[in-house]
Write a structure and sequence with these properties.
With 104 residues, the chain is mainly alpha-helical. The chain is 81% helix and 0% strand. It contains 5 helices and no strands. α2 runs antiparallel to α3, α2 runs antiparallel to α5 and α3 runs antiparallel to α4.
Amino acid sequence: MQHKSLAEGRWAEMSFSEQMANVGSEVSRTKNWLIKGNEQQAERAFDRCLELIYLTIKFANRSAIYREICRFREFFCKAYLEKDIKELEYFDHYCTQFAMNRIT
């Protein structure tokens, strides 16, 4: 586990938007490494992303959030496994909206 301090409860203290903004960082890294053709780095970023997604699921306290993040995980994994850059760009854009909401 790479995010040990987050798993110990710090993640639960973050809002869903903050969690998704952090997930988005790893989504972006995954996509960018695939575009660069570095499968090893892409896989590491993908693994970190999944770890954050699982923490979000673990601490989801509303059923709507739980359903949303589970669907996100399902389609994000599919896009990664198929190396679908266009779909990964969609996920990157989706997560960027959470980051932008934190700034404004």
